[in-house]
Amino acid sequence: MRLYCLSGDLAKPCYIITFKGLRIMLDCGLTEQTVLNFLPLPFVQSQKWSSLPNFIPGRDHDPQLDGELKECCGRVFVDSTPEFNLPMDKMLDFSEVDVILISNYLNMLALPYITENTGFKGKVYATEPTLQIGRFFLEELVDYIEVSPKACTARLWKEKLHLLPSPLCEAFRAKKWRTIFSLKDVQGSLLKVTIMGYDEKLDILGAFIATPVSSGYCLGSSNWVLSTAHEKICYVSGSSTLTTHPRPINQSALKHADVLIMTGLTQAPTVNPDTKLGELCMNVALTIRNNGSALIPCYPSGVVYDLFECLTQNLENAGLNNVPMFFISPVADSSLAYSNILAEWLSSAKQNKVYLPDDPFPHAFYLRNNKLKHYNHVFSEGFSKDFRQPCVVFCGHPSLRFGDAVHFIEMWGNNPNNSIIFTEPDFPYLQVLAPFQPLAMKAFYCPIDTSLNYQQANKLIKELKPNVLVIPEAYTKPHPSAPNLFIEQPDKKIITFKCGEILRLPLKRKLDRIYLTSEVAQKILPREVAAGVTFSTLTGVLQVKDKVHCIQPCADIVKEETSSSGGGVAPTKEDVLQKVKYEYGSIDVEAVMKRLTQDGFTNIKLDRTDGALSIQLVNEDTTIKFDDNETHIICGGRPTTRLKLRDTIMKCLQSF
Fold it and tell me: Please, which domain of life does this record's source organism belong to (predicted)?
């Protein structure tokens, strides 16, 4: 078994394992941090972005490079459509991937790059919420970028990285970055996804049984268990032991794995999500009291549901219950509606509300009472009429490189009473704000990441008790912001890996399950060879199809004698095998001597020396020695004599 690491982004993993001749991709996360190297895409081109000076390298200047790079706020940005870093495609051809298993909707954004226009013919498996909410993410991403198109795409700068300042000169695999896929590619890739439910067992090409189990991280998020009759592999990605709106993590299904692959730990290990949620509510309330408005860049699903609930309750407690909240996203309507029909994927507390009946999420109530309003874009019909300040706006994209958030930064950035609050840990907020400086509005960083932290991961690993733990190398090193935080399991065998590495995992197939047809099973005649030990011969043809081993009966061959030639049909291999006998038991020396006499041997003497038995055949100059587990024929005569003696002794044994 081998593991290929195709992504260096620990929060957006992409791995391939080879197992029983299959290539199984675990997640296909998309690294979005690369968009921070590009200028924002406003809906309407502003004077600020259009008047930025070109960046000119100090040496080896190429005039064709003019216009591709712009200087802004002491940094250099690419003036082009944002591009994304894909999983490595040279380690294994995507067309050779047999199966893709997706753990959650955040880890499937590279799916269109992998399944479309690559020759991919495999199958993709995910839970229903992962598929549907993943669709929202993908469609929103395409809409944001296509609604603000660039006239041309910059490419030459990738050939001049050595001349560029940081961080562009440190860009990883910049020549492999790709612009956003099309909506047609999104639809094509999602059509390849097969929906699975929690704890549903699915036979994957006869090689193993794949089972998604709840990971507790987000709606529909799952850990995957790959099992055979003799091996168990668990893939843990994006898991949480905290109590939030998704169904709790299923730990029992992950116990005692031969190999446990763990990734997707928190990106904010030094902070408590509950503490940061409290800080967010406090900062929003202070902003509103100062007659300012709060901007919260967010994704169209996930933590934003909890933010609606907690923030509304907090504002009501603070006497600010008349402050409007706006949720702006191309998929806002679908996301809000879909979240309220997912009872089976929710925590028990949320499920109980459905049976009352009541809405599992309070934002349905807020929508009916106009406390929360949603729109596709700021230029959507009705928004300008309903919009009033101070207010709270939830919109994308968290990178602030495209989407409606760019518009609000330009509109509110010069007012110090306003604030922007970052909750998504995917992007360093100082780099996110870099092209908008100088910025008067206040910025707060309140990362809310409910995935496993290092202490929770260490505790979980001890409870799961895997034989081998496989984790990214970065998890075994002290975290930069907290030297005492890292994965440490001294009683476990740990294997680490880095981006671009190929590992050989210590999982060797020793046994496999073989099935018998009913015809073969009926021919089994058990023979007891010792107390509690039963043997039987089995003759058949071993057929391997779709990784399934099955023994079928040998074909009956009709033998016809040819009278004209006087000959016959040569026996087949199956005929020979059916006549093979297997001897067992201990030898009775007296019976051997009696059988020798019957076969015509004379002058036979029995010798007992130091407890050892032997038979002397004087006329044939032959000795037969009997040991505990062996019988030796020492023959000085003709070879035919030895063969005849062997057959005589074999007749004295039991056989089956």
Answer: Eukaryota
Cα separation, 207 vs 450, whole angstroms: 34
Measured between alpha carbons, how far is residue 380 from residues 375, 402, 529 in Å? 6, 17, 84
| CA 204/CA 643 separation, integer angstroms | 52
* Topology (CATH level 3) of domain 273-445: Rossmann fold (3.40.50)
- The predicted-structure confidence for 44-98, as pLDDT tens digits, reads as follows 888 888 889 988 887 766 777 788 899 998 899 999 999 999 999 888 899 999 9
Residue 9, SS3? coil
Give dist(CA 402, CA 649) in Å, integer. 89
CATH number for the segment(s) 583-655:
3.30.310
**567 or 348: whose pLDDT is higher?**
348
Which helix (H) or strand (E) covers residue 17, if one does? Answer: strand 15-19
In the structure, what pLDDT confidence band is assigned to residue 562 with cuts at 50, 70 and 90? very low
CA–CA gap between residue 656 and residue 640 (Å, rounded): 26
Contacts of 614 (CB under 8 A, 6+ apart): 606, 607, 623, 624, 625, 626
Rounded CA gap, 213 and 618, in Å?
76
Instruction: Give the fold, CATH level 3, of 2-27+86-153+179-269+451-504.
Output: Metallo-beta-lactamase; Chain A (3.60.15)
What residues does each domain of the chain span? 2-27+86-153+179-269+451-504, 273-445, 515-578, 583-655
pTM of the predicted model as reported, rounded to 2 decimal places: 0.82
- Which residue, chain included where needed, has tokens 């505990």? 628
Residue 376 has pLDDT above 50, yes or no: yes
CA 267 – CA 450 distance, rounded (Å): 10
